[in-house]
Amino acid sequence: MDAKTKRSTGQSGAVGKPLPHDSAHLHVAGQAAYTDDLPEPRDLLHVAVGMSTHAHARVNSIDLDAVRVAPGVIATLLPSDIPGDNNFGAIVADDPILADGIAEYVGHPLFAVAAVSVDAARKAARRAVIDYTPLHAILDPLEAVSAGSFVLPSEEMRRGDAQAGLKNAPHRLARRVRCGGQDQFYLEGQIAMALPEENGGMLVYSSTQHPDEVQSMVAHASGRDAKDVIVICRRMGGAFGGKESQAALIACIAVLMADKTGRSCKLRLDRDDDMIMTGKRHDFVIDYDVGFDDDGRILAIDFMLASRCGISADLSGPVNDRAMFHCDNAYFLPQLALVSHRCKTNTVSNTAFRGFGGPQGMFGIECAIDDIARHLEMDPLAVRRQNFYGAAPRNVTHYGQEVDDNIAPAIMDQLVSDSDYDARRAAIRNWNQQNAVHKRGIAITPVKFGISFTSTMLNQAGALVHIYKDGSVQLNHGGTEMGQGLYIKVAQVVADELGVDIGQVRITAADTSKVPNASATAASSGSDMNGKAAQNAAAKIKQRLTEFACRHFSVSETEILFAKGQVRIGAQSLPFAKLVQLAWADRVSLSATGYYRTPKIHYDRSTFSGRPFFYFAYGAAVAEVLVDTLTGENRILRVDILHDCGDSLNPAVDLGQIEGGFVQGAGWLTSEELCWNEKGGLTTHAPSTYKIPTCSDLAPEFNVRMLKNATNREDTIYRSKATGEPPLMLALSVFFAIRDAISTEANPAPALDAPATPESILRAIDNLADSAGQPQGIDR
Amino acid sequence: MAVNSPSVPAHPVACDTIRFVLDGEIISICNPDPTRTVLQYLRDDLRRTGTKEGCAEGDCGACTVVLLELDRTGNELRVRAINSCIQFLPTLDGKELLTVESLSSDGKRLHPVQQALVDCHGSQCGFCTPGFVMSLFALYKSEACAAGRKPGRREIDDTLAGNLCRCTGYRPIIAAAQQMSDASRTNVAEGWLAQPSCEHRSSMEKVAQLRNLRRDSGLQCAHAGRRFIAPQSIAELSAALAANPGATLLAGGTDVGLWVTKQYRELGPIIYIGAVSGLDRIVRTSTHLEIGSAATLSDAVPVIIREYPVLDELFRRFASPPIRNAATLGGNIANGSPIGDSMPALMVLGTTLLLNSSDGQREISLDDFYQDYMVNALRPGEFVESVQIPLAKPGALFGSYKVSKRFDQDISCVCAAFYLTQGGDGIATARVAFGGLSATIKRAKATEQALLGKAWNEATVAAGMVAMKRDFTPLTDMRASAAYRMRVAQNLLRRFYLETGPDARFNVYEYGRED
Predict the structure, then answer these.
(1) Nearest of B305, B331, B339 to residue B385 by alpha carbon
(2) Are A576 and A500 in contact (CB under 8 A)?
(3) Which residues lie across from A195 on neighbouring strands?
(4) Segment A16-34 mean pLDDT
């Protein structure tokens, strides 16, 4: 990887290098401490949660007598024990910590029990006697739409007159498609440990992407001020969005129990309970009606998006907003009508998951594009090219943001050539004619993903940098480390800013007492925002050191350079530590906070217009698959990816995000299926029944490259681009390759829904057989 | 399940000590809790927290550790990864336990496996990493890495089938596996741990240490009234079972472990069969493969595949290496799950079981063993001593297929097996069995009747597919719908025909794979 592409300011050579994850040597040795690995206080109690077994019911009584007398039990917790707000919903206060009176999903926490061991607590929780009166449960998003059951009002977006556009279009197709939800399946389950401190203080170790929100929710629930709560998270064993809002539920229960007992309390969810109790990616039902011309160019489209939000608003508002923003993917939609329903169902409240609605929005438009191509008997690639954003007026999104950095067509062209797409597609057509049972398929799909929180106020970050007398540096910022490599990236930035070796910078845990009011580490924004904030802090100290050196050595600022652990001051060179020591002796402050707010963005939610995104990240992928048409079993044979990371801060970390995101996305679209029984209980709540990709699922040929000379047009940290979420959506290529494989001349557009499990695939094939010869669309 | 009341034990409560090796030291534990898992022991008792809990059911691999034990000859070490989350502590008796901390005692000088993972960026969140380290370490100590060999993609895939990573997408982990045994990384002077493959003189020390842990008599310990009995001979086993007819028989614990970690059940007396001499025997007689019920799948499978190479894929997909290293073929059969993967194939091959009890031995056909959902023909006090699989017969057509959402370590929605012989009048023997379609693994009698006496051709396949609807009324669950199960079962007969027919087809999972 080309590590040093025209850095203007990098002074230690750390930025742009493929440095290992800061904790890699600890991970492999079992020395990296996760929340459950921290030393346990002697008074520690373990907490277990009692959950509803009904999807919707009045809870008439909760008899905990048998729980209280169970071996090892110290205390129980009911809603009446909560001194503050019984709520952990941050945007809308509609999410009780413990359901009070009405249980709204199977898994809804009803009470908690604290005992001397994990085992004792979990066994005791099973002894509760709960009397329910079942109520009607809405288990399907479409039923919720019919019943008008929503967690938030439906939203609409309009551009032009879509209905007229559809009527006048030479061709028109309408279809309903579905894409499934997805469990985050972080390997480390949800956990928090609460330690009461003197004078009403509470220290919380939480596995969370959002320590500030945990702090705030804990404070509200326990009747404290934020100042009385400290939340610390050194690292998570994966999160993927699942620990953005959900971590607060776990932390609140641990804290409330700690308050009740006056003892330290830890709540670590068992895997099954975690999957049953906490939220996942929203599954969507998408109806579209698209009008297009003979070249496959979209003239008008009408979308209906209905998502399963579960019982509460949680993050469903912004998730569904992002689905609306991304229903264009990389394509210009001249006339559009879109309605987004945020369905209230009696299932777990769905939440953030990498992509945050974006993948679902893109799934809808890519299905439409694929259908257009199959209807016109064109290569779907040609239809994609027809519809890309281009020159004005085809350069404005349906929410009014100008696409001024559009590199999607260029990436696509390069990838088509690099992956030998055209020749392979022809070879596959030929191969399929000679193979009746096995079919191969290929697809290329683009990604354009908007970077920034769509809620403008969240686009701010803070950092805290200390330099000690020996010249060593301690770094803190509001971002959390969930494996994505944020901490090493930000440390690289600080090392470069100060011109010191990366080893001189100690990375410290996210801690609400060091950096307050931090946004969630989410929306791919971690390194963009925290990198800038930390750079700002380091630059402040560097400026003070510079001014001191000017005074002390009687030189001008232009004669001072911080580089490679040395400070050049005029003709002489001083070790960084030496200058620091002199500055301290001269009473110069060696500690600074840093701050950053993303520029240029503005957005009016009432009209869904403005510039919600600072910039877009782009990529494209080609996937080739093989399907057994007797069973629907399938394999990915080859993947080629070209992805845009801007000027990468750390190419090794970014490569990991691309590869990992792609495989996670492929899981979402193939083997990962969430199932509920007729009573609303999740039946896929453990790795035995919920199947994320394994090693053998990785394509034998897997070529991933980063776009070269991809400097971000916007002034991001070292002109890099965010890489957390965008690569996940590259996996749409896998889904459409499967659809390509099972499409036949007789019926080219199989009704395939995601996830494309073997069963879903076989169903689509059988539908083909049943409806052979029937046109799928309404041709005008 | 009926158990003896702990307050009235059939035997006087024994006081006994298990001994095992950890980091070169012999650890003795007097009367360990019979159902304390190795993972709980490591994390809670030793505060040795490098080993993680991801699922507590043996499906994610975050808890993977390695066991060293003597093989049957007592002269060689076996190195095997297992899931510590469902392994009961007393089963460590006589073995050596290695955890991620064992490979790098100071946490600084990394083992070649660990270093390769760092160099290849093989960890992101790092939570699954200790498990991957230990699975890769087991590979490192295997033939696959002997003499600087680099393991191939298939060996790596198979090794890691039980380790889930949610961050990396596996590519960098595969890269690490491919270079960990590179001669430039390994230093044979650094002792047994650092040497690739297992055949080194320095292992003699470990062999000697483990020999010293051998017991004279069976382990019998009790903890809070709960007993753990580990007989050493078949006679002791049948006596123990006669004395404790309601006892839980424990072999690999890959199912029983979940009764404790997931169902929070209190088990009565546990009789562990892993120390019974001769019960792990694997013998090829002139007519049969005889597989003792305590033989692990890892030991039994290669012998079965040698006899029936067509079963290679089925057994590669059967659970994961850490599970197969603990689980037994006998346990899979005796447990009798309707989705057990070994039984359809064994059933159509005409397998019989040798049962034993204090009343003596008897044989039963596997066909007759299952009576209803999780109900089998074992009488009280009776156990499966061995599994008798007939040897391959020339000319017979045989195949077994597993269909699930994921290739590796998934539970079948349908598992099928077909066995045909043909004579002058068409199909002379037709045996068809399925898992996943009914309350037990079952022969498909109507299908078989539709095939018998016919020529093995498209028309016969079609007739068989129609008849199959009379054999089964499958259920819908999270693994598959009833309709899909039936359709796939029918189509698998068709696949069997295509694969055994004039123009044999390849398998979707084999295409384009390099070994």
Answers:
(1) B331
(2) yes
(3) A203
(4) 97
Q: What is the mean pLDDT of chain A?
A: 95
Closest CA to B195 of B103, B117, B83, B298: B103
- Domain positions in chain B: 17-212, 222-250+260-272, 282-390, 397-500
The ipTM, to two decimals, is 0.96
Q: Yes or no: say if B457 and B387 are a contact pair by the CB < 8 Å rule.
A: no
* Residue of chain A minimizing CA distance to B410: A688
**B174 contacts A692? CB cut-off 8 A:** no
Q: Is the dihedral of CA A574, A580, A585, A588 positive or negative?
A: positive
Q: So what's the pLDDT on residue A88?
A: 98
Q: Is the pLDDT of residue A387 over 90?
A: yes
Beta-strand relationship, A171-179 and A778-779:
antiparallel
Residues 6 or more apart whose CB falls under 8 angstroms from that of B253 comprise B86, B87, B88, B91, B326
Residues B53 and B62: their CA atoms lie apart, in Å, by 6
Q: Per DSSP, what are the bridge partners of residue B22? A: B25, B97
Helix (H, G, I), strand (E, B) or coil at A185: coil
pLDDT at B204: 86
Looking at residue A80, the DSSP 8-state letter turns out to be: G
Q: What's the half-sphere exposure (Cβ side, CA atoms, 13 Å) at B214?
A: 14
Residue B501 in this model has a pLDDT that exceeds 80:
no
Q: Look at B479 and A689 and tell me if their CB atoms are within 8 Å.
A: yes
Residue B379: CB atoms within 10 A of its CB come to: 11
Nearest-5° Cα angle at A213, A208 to A216: 130
Q: Which residues pair with B249 in a beta bridge?
A: B271
Please provide the size of chain A in residues. Answer: 780
When pLDDT is cut at 50, 70 and 90, the band that residue A628 belongs to is very high
Q: What is the DSSP string of B178-230?
A: HHTT-TTT--GGG-GGGSSSS--TTHHHHHHHHHHT--SS-EEEEETTEEEEE
Q: How buried is residue B183: exposed, middle or buried, by Cβ count under 10 Å (0-12/13-18/19+)?
A: exposed
pLDDT of residue B195: 87
Indicate the CATH number for domain B282-390. 3.30.465.10
* Cβ <8 Å between B512 and A634: no
B chain contacts of residue A122, beta-carbon cutoff 8 Å? 264
Residue A773 scores a pLDDT above 60: no
Question: Does B397-500 carry CATH code 3.30.450.40?
Answer: no
The confidence score (pLDDT) of residue B512 equals 62
Query: Is the C-alpha dihedral spanning B340, B341, B346, B347 positive or negative?
Result: positive
8 Å CB contact between A671 and A757:
yes
Superfamily of domain B17-212: Beta-grasp domain (3.10.20.30)
Give me the residue from B113, B484, B506 closest to A762, CB to CB: B484
B410 at A interface, C-beta within 8 A: yes
Q: Distance (Å, rounded) from C-alpha A741 to C-alpha B437?
A: 29
Listed in order, strand segments (DSSP E) in A414-565 are 438-451, 460-467, 473-477, 505-507, 510-511, 560-563
Q: Is the pLDDT of residue B9 over 50?
A: no
Domains of chain A: 24-33+460-597 (3.30.365.10), 43-136+215-225+236-268 (3.90.1170.50), 284-454+605-779 (3.30.365.10)
Residues counted in chain B: 515
Contact state of A656 with B168 under an 8 Å Cβ cutoff: yes
